[in-house]
Write a structure and sequence with these properties.
Blueprint (H helix, E strand, L loop, with lengths): L14 H19 L7 H7 L2 E6 L9 E6 L2 E7 L4 H18 L7 E4 L5 H15 L2 H10 L4 H8 L3 H10 L6
Parallel strand pairs: 1-3
Antiparallel strand pairs: 2-3, 2-4
């Protein structure tokens, strides 16, 4: 499935800096692609020059990976057995590897969740959460929904579990 054997390195950025990068990317997507909450991440991958490839899990614990060959040349691998809401977070997570760790293709390499260093995965999760559920919008939606993870998840096109995790990370009441 993946030909490149070089593992991508951690970015070394703080959580705050990673979230700022995600906000900058999101602003660019909103401006150039008219991207909105619960927007089409498949279109984002294509716009960045990437492609998607689906595979069968077959007992593997790998729920997504990326191979970066160069600028605007990468493949995101997603399992067929997952659902659209999970795929959205996985896509955002893999885009984080492309942006943060491969430096938008300047650094070819690959990243698979299984076996990757914990810090590398945390960085990708921080980026994905901010890209999909921007803190300011999320906090407002959380308040307006009376702290309903299900309703907030629908707003942002993520799973209720992802919405609950985001609420906890932002230390919101009722999380």
């Amino acid at each position: 499935m993946i030909g490149i054997q070089t593992e991508l390195p951690e970015s070394g950025l703080s959580r705050h800096a990673i979230e700022e990068v995600a906000r900058e990317i999101r602003a660019q997507l909103e401006s150039e692609l008219d991207y909105r909450d619960a927007g089409d991440l498949y279109r984002v991958v294509q716009w960045l020059g990437g492609e998607l490839c689906y595979y069968d899990l077959l007992g593997s614990d790998d729920h997504g990976s990326i191979e970066v060959r160069g600028p605007s040349e990468f493949t995101v691998y997603l399992p067929r057995q997952t659902n659209g809401l999970r795929d959205r977070f996985t896509l955002a997570h893999e885009l984080a590897h492309y942006v943060l760790h491969a430096r938008q293709g300047e650094r070819p390499g690959r990243c698979q969740r299984s076996g990757a260093p914990a810090r590398l995965e945390w960085e990708a999760n921080w980026f994905a959460a901010e890209l999909l559920m921007p803190a300011d919008r999320f906090q407002r939606a959380w308040r307006e929904s009376s702290q309903s993870a299900r309703r907030v998840a629908q707003t942002f096109g993520v799973s209720p579990a992802a919405a609950r995790t985001r609420a906890k990370a932002l230390e919101l009441p009722g999380a």
